[in-house]
Amino acid sequence: MTEIHEFELTTDSMDAVVSLFGLNDQNVSLIEQECHVHISLREHHMMISGDPDRISVAFETIQVLLKLIDRGETIDRVRIRYIISMVQEHKTEYILDQIKKVVAVTHRGKQITCKTLGQQLYVDAIRNHTLTFAVGPAGTGKTYLAMAMAASALKNREIQRIILTRPAVEAGEKLGFLPGDLAQKVDPYLRPLYDALYDFMGPDAFQRLTEKGAIEVAPLAYMRGRTLSDAFIIMDEAQNTTSEQMKMFLTRIGFHSKVVVTGDITQTDLPQGKTSGLSEAIHLLREVPDISVAELTGKDIVRHELVQRIVEAYEASARKAEETAGQIQSANRRLQNHHPESMADVN
User: Greatest CA separation found in the chain?
Assistant: First the structure.
């Protein structure tokens, strides 16, 4: 049964409605497509027609989007799809709660807030634990949000310095072939960390704080033999650490420090057969008090929607490979149970 829900828009909200509709009405077209409704605008009235339950989802989605636009948030296709999914799961209150909490402010005055529930749980984990592991695919904000928390903590004088590090292993490349000393060799690998801090401090303040020692960016090898106290320490790309490197790093933690370890365990560049220190640490330490594991997923990706589709395609392929391997193992077990003598001959 098709129904029509009509509601009035205030004059103040008309600018927001323009942003809501988007270029060539592409945003509203997406809502229509995802919710299976029809949306039209007549003067100060918006009308949604379709199945009553679907009208309810579309209406609630539009209300949330208008609140986000009112706060100056950017609306894109990824954001719209995420909000629709949250509305369908009856988690709208989480979205409205997220937009009220400011994680940090950039040097240009832009307020940084969590865009997904997974990101909010991640930020809360950092606030409430000494050590937080954050795992998830590219584009979920693992490093950027950790940087935001670190910059805010330094600004509020909760810590005395920020220490950023990452292992010098990347996509199978050999550092020995790069020019310069070790610091110069690893500088390109640390560039994403610089870029994030530039957002929050500006290049000049970053340079000044680096010269004073309040910000230290160094390869993981430089952490050996140190005790890191009164600091916010971030290790990025931790999936490329060995077990020995991870143990060495984690035992550097000193008093009054906060540590965030980020990585994507599906993109390890270690030699074949080498266990990722990140995977092992999560397995060993997950239940230890004051340690948290934040697991971000494809739903938390806040980059171009194509990134989300790429991640989903790879995850589907990995699941299919696991299922195939499981089916082969099951078939082998059944064969062994039915013909144990012939299997013994094969072995």
Answer: 83
pTM, two decimals, is 0.73
Cα–Cα dist 49/58, whole Å: 10
Distance (Å, rounded) from C-alpha 131 to C-alpha 281?
12
Q: Extract the tokens encoding 250.
A: 């984690």
Nearest to 151 by CA among 88, 102, 106, 113: 106
CA-nearest of 236, 245, 193 to 216 is: 193
* b/e burial code for range 198-224 (CB count within 10 A of at least 16 → b): bbbbeeebbeebbeeebbbbbbbeebe
The residues of the chain that CATH labels 3.30.1370.10 are 3-98
DSSP 8-state class, residue 167: -
Residues near 282 by beta carbon (within 8 Å), at least 6 away in sequence: 133, 135, 293
pLDDT in tens, 312-344: 677 678 778 777 877 787 777 777 776 655 555
Q: What is the DSSP string of 231-254?
A: EEEEE-SGGG--HHHHHHHHTTB-
Comparing C-alpha atoms, which of 38, 42, 30, 65 is closest to residue 54?
Answer: 38
Pick the closest to residue 238 from 226, 257, 223 (CA basis).
223
Instruction: Specify whether the CB–CB gap between 171 and 269 falls below 8 A.
Output: yes
Could you tell me where in the chain the CATH 3.40.50.300 domains are found? 104-303
Q: Give the mean pLDDT of 236-257.
A: 92
Tokens standing for residue 62: 């539009």
Task: Give Cβ neighbours of residue 54 (< 8 Å, ≥ 6 apart).
Answer: 35, 36, 37
Please name the fold of domain 3-98.
Ribosomal Protein S8; Chain: A, domain 1 (3.30.1370)
CATH 3.40.50.300 fits 104-303, yes or no: yes
